[in-house]
């Protein structure tokens, strides 16, 4: 059997902690979790690009006040060529779904990281 945990590293670009922890518990559990990651993040013909998938999860993280996750995703967005305006649009969508108070809570850290990353 192929190493599913290596495949998820190839697809995602890094080994998620959850897969590493799952592997410590049970190899079959790790393979199942790796399959989920691979299915979600694989690029498919006529499907969402990795950039668009990251924009979606970025907006969701922001709207749920998962600022640390949003900052990590922002780094991935830079890698996948997202523009400053695409990130800002995602932030505005996050304010729509999460509320203006959430927007005021996550925006300062995100803008600071955008500047650091050169968006």
From TrEMBL:
<feature type="domain" description="Carboxymuconolactone decarboxylase-like">
    <location>
        <begin position="28"/>
        <end position="104"/>
    </location>
</feature>
<dbReference type="InterPro" id="IPR029032">
    <property type="entry name" value="AhpD-like"/>
</dbReference>
<dbReference type="InterPro" id="IPR003779">
    <property type="entry name" value="CMD-like"/>
</dbReference>
<dbReference type="GO" id="GO:0051920">
    <property type="term" value="F:peroxiredoxin activity"/>
</dbReference>
<protein>
    <submittedName>
        <fullName>Carboxymuconolactone decarboxylase family protein</fullName>
    </submittedName>
</protein>
<dbReference type="Pfam" id="PF02627">
    <property type="entry name" value="CMD"/>
</dbReference>
């Amino acid at each position: 059997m192929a190493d599913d945990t290596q495949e998820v590293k190839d697809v995602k670009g890094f080994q998620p902690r959850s897969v590493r922890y799952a592997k410590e518990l049970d190899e079959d559990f790790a393979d199942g979790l790796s399959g989920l990651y691979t299915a979600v993040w694989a690029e498919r013909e006529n499907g969402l690009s990795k950039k668009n998938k990251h924009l979606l999860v970025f907006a969701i993280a922001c709207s749920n006040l998962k600022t640390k996750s949003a900052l990590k995703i922002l780094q991935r967005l830079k890698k996948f060529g997202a523009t400053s305006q695409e990130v800002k649009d995602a932030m505005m969508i996050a304010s729509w779904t999460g509320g203006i108070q959430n927007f005021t809570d996550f925006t300062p850290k995100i803008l600071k990281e955008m500047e650091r990353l050169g968006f």
